[in-house]
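fyi for ur records
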Amino acid sequence: MSFGYAAEKFASARSVLMLPHPQGEDQSIATAFSECRKGLERFDRTLFDDSSSIWIKQLDQLMKTEGIEDPDREGLFLIKARQLSIDDQLQFSTVVDELQCWFSRRKD
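which gave:
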């Protein structure tokens, strides 16, 4: 997995978090969750330094869907997005931005 691919996915996540939210803020957050997951799914986590490891732990916690039920098949990320507090949303946005910058600096 390349730094470039991860940087691209996190740039996409950051972009969908920006206004406007044509399908609603919750859907934008759920889409950003998905982009982050794609960016990290095959990335070797041993490559993270101390700072980025902290951001990854925060991201993992914010995106955690264990214990969430989805009886209407809306999608676990959408349900999780609805559960985020304003502080969680701010933290998520900040972490996505920091990681996108971190990946971008290393892609070359």
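DSSP finds five helices and no strands in the chain. thats all i got for now
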